[in-house]
Amino acid sequence: MAAVAAMKALAVAASPVSARQPRRYVAGGASRRLQSPFHGVSVQCPGRPRRATPRRGRQVAVVAAAVRPAIQFIQGTDEQTIPDVRLTKSRDGTNGVAIFTFEQPSVFDSSAELGDITGFYMIDDEGVLQSVDVSAKFVNGKPARIEAKYVMRTPRDWDRFMRFMERYSQANGLQFVKN
Fold first, then answer.
1. Is this model's pTM higher than 0.70 or not?
2. Based on the structure, what is the number of domains in the chain?
């Protein structure tokens, strides 16, 4: 399939019609004009004059939306309870653990209609940090608390986690207290 697309690209590139136009190469595969499902990056040859290609049809608007930092146990459902967070870090600073404790979390109220807890998700502008180390504590047969652990194995993981916590604490009015 790829060989056929490449042969079509070579046939078009060698045609007398294409010889009059500036040469354009598509990185990695055949051109979109050949009905290939691959949409590569166009590369202009140096030394050739560039002509503007008119775009027809659609216009694209770029919208930058800020994501409010959130914690979720069920994807798509934000946890409303603000956690108590304990941090530990190794002496050499290479790894650490964050333990989140949620007393009477709202996920217990909504899990009946939304489903089971699937993990621990920390969502912000940069993406999602996740863990599956989640445990529920029961008192007299009723769910009372959720504890979630997030392990950071590299200084980069630690820095990313701290950026999330800074955003989350600003959005929820939390403060850092060193013990």
1. no
2. 2
